[in-house]
Write a structure and sequence with these properties.
It contains 15 helices and 14 strands. By secondary structure, the chain is of the alpha+beta class. Helix 9 packs antiparallel against helix 10 (296-311), helix 10 (296-311) packs antiparallel against helix 11 (317-334) and helix 11 runs antiparallel to helix 12 (339-353).
Length: 399
């Protein structure tokens, strides 16, 4: 997490950015003298409790003698900027003979970064039957994975961005909470073999649309749609044209649409309710492998399911651990650059082998290859907790 100076505080129609020494109302920058700004910051950071005059003097005027008149002048300047009333305060309440208290509700976010940043929200299911949620999440996750490979583009992990699913928050609020400049949202409508995907790239600062497009194609073109979305976002955010010689950005381990759909359905179940539907997910992964024996992602997804059979006491560990190892090693044989396979390997090293160094290497490699993957972050968190590195685990959990 960032320090206080890297945070932006929001209350009412105002934002307070210590890193830029700015107090703003909407897009209007308000003028405060340095000591008045520091006084407001002190009160905001210690909100919901009384800040005594002595505390305020020590915080703002360290090692400098001041009297109460100077502090009162600063408070008066702040109230004028905020339009606050001393008799009916909304922001700063005077506690006679003691000090002051900031009483408005405050939200925090990290200060905007210099480099381009984006959050991809889960796409909405607009299909007639409302039964394509797995496809909506799958397409969004594929785009996250593709964008995560782009140097200098900060992409919010699936865990954080998908937490806003079905939340009635506007784009600016979501953007501020995730500390990103742009948000990609979309919808999916599948009717028969036709697939319609509508996407919008939105600028968080003013909610303006940087780009929007609708893809109306056959379901078999889903890979091309994901690539088109990812490439266009890169061009919009980085101002760089992607060369015509580029390879596909999304996985091409199978050209079979049925196998790919089965893999998406299985992954969707694995994410739901902590993976408690993993037995059903196994069925999907096994069917995908039957259709495409060289499908590395399906093997990598199947491996943790064997481990969960033991964890949830369905079977004895010794009967399924060898199958978990076999599946993940097959995945790595088929694709040694697959982040998902290194995640599965880390879990095998933790649960089967108690190989902490191997788990460390594998979980790190999984994150390097898939930095936007929720499962990659979860596996890294599991490892850190297992070896007692709790400070790092807390930091990982907050990503």
């Amino acid at each position: 997490m960032g320090s206080n100076k890297e945070r932006v505080y929001r209350f009412g129609h105002f934002s307070l950015d210590p890193s830029q020494f700015k107090l703003q109302r909407a897009d209007e920058e308000l003028s405060l003298r340095p000591k008045s700004f520091a006084t407001l910051l002190c009160l905001v950071q210690n909100r919901n409790r009384i800040v005594t005059k002595d505390e305020l003097f020590e915080s703002v005027w360290t090692r400098t003698y001041v009297n109460e008149t100077v502090a009162s002048q600063c408070i008066g300047e702040i109230r004028a900027a905020l339009g606050d009333d001393i008799h009916h305060p909304r922001y700063i309440k005077t506690i006679p003979k003691i000090g002051y208290q900031f009483i408005a509700e405050v939200t925090e976010s990290l200060a905007p970064l210099d480099r381009p940043s984006i959050a991809v929200l889960p796409f909405r299911d607009m299909s007639p039957k409302g039964d394509q949620d797995y496809l909506c999440e799958g397409i969004a996750e594929e785009v996250i994975t593709a964008l995560s490979q782009v140097k200098d583009l900060r992409v919010i992990a699936r865990t954080s961005s998908f937490s806003f699913k079905d939340k009635s928050l506007d784009i600016q609020e979501i953007g501020h909470r995730l500390n990103v400049r742009t948000i990609l949202e979309g919808s999916v409508r599948k009717t028969g073999s036709r697939l319609r995907v509508a996407v919008q790239l939105i600028n968080v600062a003013d909610s303006s649309h940087l780009w929007s497009e609708e893809f109306d194609r056959e379901m078999g073109d889903v890979f091309a749609i994901q690539d088109d979305i990812s490439v266009t976002v890169m061009q919009m955010l980085k101002g760089e044209l992607i060369g015509s010689e580029r390879g596909p950005l999304t996985e091409r381990q199978t050209g079979d649409l049925e196998a790919y759909t089965l893999q998406l359905k299985g992954r969707y179940l694995m994410y739901r309710e902590g993976g408690r539907d993993f037995v059903d997910a196994m069925t999907y992964f096994e069917k995908a492998i039957e259709i495409t024996p060289g499908y590395a992602s399906a093997y990598a997804s199947l491996s943790p399911c064997y481990l969960l059979l033991a964890v949830w006491n369905h079977v004895e560990p010794n009967t399924v651990f060898p199958q978990a190892k076999e599946a993940v090693l097959k995945a790595l044989e088929l694709d040694p650059t697959l982040g998902l396979a290194y995640e599965a390997l880390a879990l095998v090293r933790i649960l089967c082998d108690w190989d902490w160094e191997g788990a460390d290497r594998s979980s790190k490699r999984g994150l390097e290859l898939s930095p936007g993957s929720e499962s990659a972050h979860n596996v890294r968190l599991i490892y850190l907790v297992a070896v007692g590195r709790m400070d790092e685990a807390v930091a990982e959990a907050e990503i």
